[in-house]
Amino acid sequence: MRVREYTPSDRSACLAVFDSNVPRFFASSEREEFAAFLNTPLPGPFALIEDEAGEVLGCGGYRVRPGSTTADLCWGMIKRERHGTGLGKLLLDIRLERIHADTEVEAVSVHTSQHTCGFYRHRGFRTERVTPNGYAPGLDRCDMRLLLRAPEGRIA
């Protein structure tokens, strides 16, 4: 496995990873939003995981909110047929390690579906809100947060 940064030439491979996760993990209506995300200057680091042959198996990024101490995970996904192989954990760990290196960041947020909130819960995230059908009918939105360090001036 190799981890590297996204380039515009990876767009179709990332869209294929997205497509492999529809409809269980993403609503088909989200594809246009993801494609637009890939077409614009990315708001922060966006990593790819690829195999020895160069096939993209997953992608995901984050951004630190301007003027904030929170980093938002964005568009994290692993090719559907590779779920359960540890690649999702690897992708999350890479992003959290990079975020944790920024000593200004105190927390990480993610919004995800009910199908993956358990994955994040096992990694220490806490559910703050669930919006039934928040993405599409039958696809709830779970807003989650992980505290990395105590807010400035408070004891952890």
In words, what does this structure look like?
This protein is of the alpha+beta class and 156 residues long. The chain has a single domain, classed as Gcn5-related N-acetyltransferase (GNAT) (Aminopeptidase). The protein contains 4 helices and 7 strands. It has helices spanning 11-20, 31-39, 87-100, 117-122; strands at 2-5, 46-50, 56-64, 70-78, 107-113, 126-136, 139-147. The chain has a 7-stranded mixed sheet, with helices on both faces. α3 (87-100) links the parallel β4 and β5 (107-113). α1 (11-20) packs antiparallel against α2 (31-39). The longest helix is centred in the middle third of the chain and has 14 residues, at 87-100. The relative contact order is 0.15. The mean pLDDT is 94.
What brief labels describe this structure?
single chain, 156 residues, alpha+beta, Aminopeptidase, seven-stranded mixed beta sheet, 4 helices, globular
Quick structural summary:
With 156 residues, this protein is of the alpha+beta class. The protein has helices spanning 11-20, 31-39, 87-100, 117-122, and strands spanning 2-5, 46-50, 56-64, 70-78, 107-113, 126-136, 139-147.
CATH class: Alpha Beta
**Spatial extent as radius of gyration:** 15 Å
The CATH superfamily label reads Gcn5-related N-acetyltransferase (GNAT)
Number of strands: 7
